[in-house]
């Protein structure tokens, strides 16, 4: 059973999410009303997923996410935000969040999102991520040589990272390259290890920051 911690400064929001998740068979192990409580509760309870609001008193969701990522606990953070282009969302992704949702998300989408993130997958729509990086990522000049950050990757790994950066899911990558799903997962695991990345979201961010992917590119 997936275990979730809900961090939001509004009690009504926490209660609503708790009800939806528990009705879906997800175990809500705790609640926090600010970022500091969220960090402490995550270290103590070690949930699979933390539903994290961005704007909270004492400590905001970005700093809380950063501290959770650095703490070494396996918990993954799913950011909750009011606006899909909130400038803080991208900062949270860079801090170690595994994705984000709008607060007005439907019940089924919320449950699916929690299961997706708990399984280690990213939850960022490609179109939304592209808009975010267009606004907030400092990209290097276009270059022909392979960026030094990616030099340790094999040609196949670089190819897969490019597809990951374009927002393709593992089955789509497998289909595009005519390889098995297990092979795709193995390559992605090696990419994350080599580049010292926490998860798929950070791989996507790196693909943009190194110029491997440019906003608006679809091929």
Overall 3D form: globular
Q: Report low-confidence residues grouped into runs of 5 or more.
A: none
- Per CATH, what is the topology of the largest domain? Rossmann fold
Order of helices and strands: EHEHEHEHEHHHHHH
* CA-based gyration radius: 17 Å
State which percent range the strand residues make up: 5-15%
Helix fraction by DSSP (H/I, runs of at least 4): 40-55%
Number of domains: 2
Biggest sheet, strands in spatial order? 2-1-3-4-5
CATH architecture of the largest domain: 3-Layer(aba) Sandwich
* CATH homology superfamily of the largest domain: Response regulator
- The level 1 CATH classification of the largest domain is Alpha Beta
Intertermini distance: 39 Å
Q: Could you describe the largest sheet, including whether it forms a barrel?
A: 5 strands, parallel
Q: How many H/I helices? A: 10
By helix and strand content, what is the structural category?
alpha/beta
Average pLDDT, rounded to a whole number, is: 84
């Amino acid at each position: 059973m997936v275990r979730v911690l809900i961090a939001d400064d509004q009690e009504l929001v926490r209660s609503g999410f708790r009800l939806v998740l528990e009705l879906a068979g997800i175990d809500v192990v705790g609640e926090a009303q600010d970022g500091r409580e969220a960090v402490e509760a995550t270290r103590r309870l070690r949930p699979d997923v933390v539903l994290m609001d961005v704007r909270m008193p004492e400590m905001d969701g970005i700093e809380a996410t950063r501290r959770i990522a650095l703490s070494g606990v396996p918990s993954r953070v799913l950011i909750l935000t009011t606006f899909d282009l909130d400038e803080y969302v991208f900062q949270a992704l860079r801090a170690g969040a595994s994705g984000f949702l709008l607060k007005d998300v439907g019940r089924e989408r919320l449950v699916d999102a929690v299961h997706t993130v708990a399984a280690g997958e990213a939850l960022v729509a490609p179109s939304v991520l592209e808009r975010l990086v267009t606004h907030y990522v400092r990209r290097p000049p276009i270059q022909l040589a392979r960026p030094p950050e990616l030099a340790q990757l094999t040609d196949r790994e670089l190819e897969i990272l490019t597809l990951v950066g374009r927002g393709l899911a593992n089955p789509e990558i497998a289909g595009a390259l005519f390889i098995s799903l297990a092979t795709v997962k193995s390559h992605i695991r090696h990419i994350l290890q080599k580049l010292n990345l926490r998860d798929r979201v950070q791989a996507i961010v790196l693909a943009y920051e190194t110029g491997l992917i440019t906003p608006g590119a679809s091929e």
